Design the sequence.
């Protein structure tokens, strides 16, 4: 059985995490952020060291270990009873992050919508990330060169995922609106997503 999935998509700083947390508190939605799965690893763990190595350069962690880790994490959520795929819609944030990852997850995910949080203003993204650096203690948000590198990685590796899923699934949402208005735009779209059959 595939997981019914809504993908939260957009550049770092576009607000995926903020909206994901809100939507994840609605009954029958389960929010899963891949970056959080990585940050829960410890430095003693080999994959934890690989994560630090890549993320501190603003690069993506290679696909194989990423998908493996994610599969283990979602299985754990299932066995702990936090995520019930027969009842819940998965709100995925930060994965798949390349067309190759999308291909690897094809047998696992039934994507019903891609919520693409757009932000044409590069400086606005940078500002948001720098604010988050202190609030969430994220070193990868503190350094301007690293932020630039992550945004370049997004353009090169991640944006093509939108073409992979195609225009019928992708909904563009202006992420420069206030959080409450972004939420309203998202809810309007979700109200029209076909219900589970
Ligand atoms: P942001 O929303 O700022 O991009 P995330 O918390 O989603 O931050 O990700 C932080 C870092 O974790 C990324 O820069 C990347 O190195 C790594 N990462 C997260 N998800 C993935 C993924 N699906 N594939 C590869 N690397 C990932």
Sequence:
């Amino acid at each position: 059985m595939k997981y019914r999935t809504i993908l939260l998509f957009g550049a770092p700083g576009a607000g995926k995490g903020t909206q994901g947390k809100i939507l994840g508190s609605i009954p029958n939605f389960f929010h899963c952020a891949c970056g959080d799965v990585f940050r829960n690893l410890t430095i003693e763990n080999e994959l934890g060291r690989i994560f630090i190595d890549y993320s501190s350069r603003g690069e993506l962690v290679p696909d194989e270990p990423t998908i493996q880790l994610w599969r283990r994490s979602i299985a754990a959520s299932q066995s702990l009873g936090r995520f019930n795929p027969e009842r819940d819609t998965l709100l995925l944030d930060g994965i798949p992050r390349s067309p190759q990852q999308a291909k690897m997850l094809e047998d696992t995910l039934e994507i019903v919508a891609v919520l693409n949080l757009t932000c044409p203003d590069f400086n606005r993204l940078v500002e948001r990330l720098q604010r988050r650096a202190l609030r969430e203690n994220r070193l990868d948000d503190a350094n301007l060169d690293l932020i630039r590198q992550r945004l370049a990685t997004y353009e090169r590796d991640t944006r093509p995922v939108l073409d992979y899923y195609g225009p019928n699934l992708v909904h563009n949402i202006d992420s420069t609106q206030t959080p409450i208005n972004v939420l309203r735009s998202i809810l309007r779209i979700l109200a029209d997503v076909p219900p589970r059959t």
User: Anything to note?
Assistant: The chain has a mean pLDDT of 94.
